[in-house]
Structure formats: C-alpha cells, structure tokens
Amino acid sequence: xxxxxxxxxxxxxxxxxxxxxxxxxxxxxxxxxxxxxxxxxxxxxxxxxxxxxxxxxxxxxxxxxxxxxxxxxxxxxxxxxxxxxxxxxxxxxxxxxxxxxxxxxxxxxxxxxxxxxxxxxxxxxxxxxxxxxxxxxxxxxxxxxxxxxxxxxxxxxxxxxxxxxxxxxxxxxxxxxxxxxxxxxxxxxxxxxxxxxxxxxxxxxxxxxxxxxxxxxxxxxxxxxxxxxxxxxxxxxxxxxxxxxxxxxxxxxxxx
Length: 256
Hints:
Layout: E1 5-8, E2 13-23, H1 40-43, E3 52-56, H2 64-69, H3 73-79, E4 85-89, H4 109-123, E5 127-131, H5 152-162, E6 167-168, H6 170-186, E7 190-193, E8 205-211, H7 213-229
C-alpha cells in the first residue's frame, strides 16, 4: 500500500484520504466579500500531496462548544472514513467570557468538548489531531511577541498527552514566527488595510487575529511541517515546504 492511500475495509480497495478541519475563523474558507482576509485552511492543500483532499469545515466565530452545540460536528463525523484525519483547532472564541454560547473553561469544559471530537473521530476509524490555536499578533513595548491564549494551549497539551492524541503546537510555532518577523514585518501577514486599499474595506481595517494571504500560507506551512514532525503524515505526503508560494494561488468563493 502506498503512503498516499488507505485500505477501505468495507470495499477492500485503496482510496485517497481526506484531511478534515474543524475550527474557527483563523482556519476557515472565506467568501469573496471578505477578501483579502484568508484562513490557513485555504492554503493547506498547497502543501499536501495531491492524493490528500482537504475538507475545511472551520466556521467563523465558533468555539469548541458552539461548533458542537450547533450540530456541526455530526456531519463531519458522518463523512470521515477509516484512515482520514480530523484536525481540531479551537481556542480563540472559547475565551469569550461575555458570551455563554461560546465560552468554555480551559481545564474543564474546554477539555470535555475537545474530547468529543477525539472520541468521535476514533469511533469512525479516523485519526484526531489537536492543534493549539494560532497566536494573534501582539507585541510588548520591547518588541517581544506575546502569548494571547491564556491557559487554553496548556489545557489542550495536557488533554492530548492524557489521551495519546497527536498534538501540533501551532500556538508556540506561530509565536516564534511572529517573534522572528517582529512588529513591523508581521503586520504584512495579518488583516491590515489602509482606507481605500480594498473595495471590501473602504475604511480600512486593523486586525491582529485574521490573516492576509501571506499569513494564511505561512501558518498552513507551519501546520504541514508539524504534521510530518509529529509523524501524522509521511514526508512524501507533503510538498512545497520550502517554496515561496504566490498569494494569487488562494481563491475566494462567492456567497452561496
């Protein structure tokens, strides 16, 4: 069996695998009206072998709780097949202390909700992978990149260790990248626009959470490298890890 295929035991045949994403706006596909804002899930296919399909179910504004409470996990689990991957990245909106619809607490409800994604994927023969939340762009006066997710990343790390789930520490990896770039250069990776620069944002925008294409591509590259480093994917299931990809490869879809 090649590393790019998985035996479907129901049919006795080989088939390509799918990489599912459950997450929030930092990962989600974006519509044309939001361009040039981009989620890292839009760029992940560029770094995966063509026999790996990405099914991006990430949705703006969702937490581990609200995604599940809205019934969004159920169709994902219905679609997964043995050998598929389920990448789970929540945390940004779990911190919304003024919103009980989305709020979770790191060491209790957050872990309980995440565990439902893990057990659901495993029950279907798929492999769950937990991803700590990509960091926001925030620096102190000395130019040091600051962590912004409180105890949520550590709570996810602990859950992954306790249940032997592969963990991609995107919080740590992205924080290191923003530190390397510094306050000035990192701004080009985030959703900043001057007034009049884009017809979608006539008044401009200053957003240190969401990405422009360059940021989405680089976070997707971090994710792909981490999938290999953690042994989730084989090296020959990845491509273009050292290639400078053009922003024009990203595409935005019209509203349905």
